[in-house]
Amino acid sequence: MLSLPIRPTLLGLAAICVTGIATAAEPQRPSPADPAASAGMPAYRSAFSDYQPMQEAAPQDWRTVNDAVARTGGHAGALKENAAAGKPAAMTPAGHAGHKH
Question: What predicted TM-score, i.e. pTM, was given to this entire model?
Answer without folding.
Answer: 0.26
